[in-house]
Amino acid sequence: MYSTVVSDVGTVRSNNQDSAFAGEHLIAICDGMGGHAGGDTASTIAIRSLAHIEQDNVQGDVQIIAHMMETSVMAAHDAIVGKAKRERRLAGMGTTVTSVALVAGYWVLAHIGDSRAYLLHDGRLIRMTSDHSYVQHLIDTGRISEAEARNHPQRNVVMRVLGDFDIDSSPDIAIRKAHPADRWLLCSDGLCGVLEDSTLQEVLSACSDQEECAQQLVSMALRAGSTDNVTAVIADATLALDADAFDLPHQTPLVGGAASASLEPIADIINEPVASAPALREGKKSPAARAAALRNGKNPNEDDNPPEQRVAQPSTVREENGDRTNPDTGEIPVVQKDDGRISADPNDPEVAKAIRNEHIEQRKTKRTRTRRNRVIAIIVTIVVLLGLAGGAFATYRWSQTKYYIGDDNGEVAIFQGVPTSLFGFQLSHAVTDTHMKTSELPPSWQEQLAQGISFDTYGEAKTHTRLIKKQLKQQQDEAAQKEQDKANGESDNKSSGTTSDKSSGKSDKSDDASANKSGGDQS
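Structure tokens predicted for Protein phosphatase 2C (523 residues):
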């Protein structure tokens, strides 16, 4: 097949997190996610993990290719997770993967996420993938319509994706018979999220030139208001479905989006030259690009000349030219085979062995790190405990220089320490009993004793207890005096009453005597 790709950062984003590959036997689109530094890394790793399928010789075995695509996607998942663990700034990164391979007259499709694959067959556009997204689940269950899904607030929530997430990362695999007139469109949701399927069918049917078709679709998506990166991969089956069989001209594989920033690793993986994808020829610049143009004194509304396509040679050619660099495939082991060819195919026995060895080293490193962290945790715990113990001891020593007067089971006592506790341990104890009962004190004093009356020295506390005892005795004496006075008053009243009675009796007797005497005189 012949294929091309056009990818654009869009009008809102500051960097392109999409990555794409367009070759003769393999096409792929990956839509990265995970912040400024994560999405482009994840999508690049996925493209590099799949790229080996472009050149793998499997004698036309469709099932082997299907298995290779599945294991390559899973290898990309492991590589993304591994890199995220090594570089915490990349935590949470992930990517979608939608890839199609042509082998022995069959299409083999691998898909995970919400990027899409469309097949134009006999003039009819068929959506070959189902979005692994929350809104697609709502559509499938009849809760919302396709039209409602376009504006749903959770339309960007994916339920299956590769990356640093605790979700299913296994791809859907499909096999379909290929036909010479088949045309594929792989695109990120920045394109299919704003253009109707009917529009896609119209453009794919009307525009025979691959690059022109991709340019139109990306431009239309941007004009329709797409706020995401926009990428389109177009692939057409050749009449023979095999360029080698009829000595047809070969194309140089194209790499678009984030993965095109470093072409050499992909050239090493497939062991042939690769080129960067053509840039979008028209379209508005992103806010970041316009700001950069203003800083450079340029008109932000004028498009710069599109950058020239770059071509990267494989390591064998670069080595001859004295430009040999170590390939970086993003956590995927690279081995050099006996014939000098570089391979990063996870199905290659030597690469698989390298992966196993790397996993063993990772486990050893993890165990060492775990032991080291455990020792550090124990040391830190001991230091903290010693610090707490030292602090507690210092607090106790300080508390024993203080004294207070308080209640000791109903008795007024002098305590050494402070009226509180530390970790359940009382910081005071009674040292002197004053032989005064708390209940004998006025309520205001009882409240003070409940809180504790603090002093800096034992002498001050002792002096205060004497004062309390003296005041208590005075109060008791005053109370006793009042009781005595009250008793005396009652006694005086009783004595006065008795004297009055006696006087009254004498008066009565005198009156009687006088009366008797008067009576005698009359007679």
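The chain has three domains: 2-281, 348-399, 403-490.
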